[in-house]
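Dear colleagues,

I hope this message finds you well. In preparation for our joint manuscript, I am sending the CARD domain-containing protein (Pygocentrus nattereri) sequence together with its predicted structure, so that both groups work from identical material. I would be grateful if you could confirm receipt.
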Amino acid sequence: IKMSALSEKELNGCRTLLALLSAGDLLALSDTVTNRLVCVESPREAIEAIVAYSQSAEELLKRRRVHREVIFKYLAKEGVVVPPNSEKHQLVKRTLELWSSGNVGIKTCHKLRTYLTTRAISMNGDLSTSGGM
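The corresponding structure tokens are as follows:
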């Protein structure tokens, strides 16, 4: 059995993200990553081969078959809000940050939303007092 070069968080994240790909893309990606030396017969086997033979999470995320939309969808499922018009390299960077920190996502989103709401309320209060004349 080949030992993966990915961390446990990266392995889990890659598996979840790869499950969003079509069966055709998974099989093609498996062929590319393994140089067609590992024969897979199902999407599940393809995912395991891909994560086992990928050199790094970044290398995997940058592959052509791992589409921008798939990374965006993965981040959304993980509670990470990114602009819908983000380019692939930005989504790759954000995904790698998520996997390296481990706790970025819904909790951070909630804190940010609370901060922005509080800030908006205080700004509206300032506007209403200064704009009264």
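For the figure legend, we might mention the following. The chain has two domains: 8-102, 105-133. Helices lie at 8-18, 23-33, 43-53, 57-61, 68-77, 88-101, 106-130.

With kind regards,
E.M.
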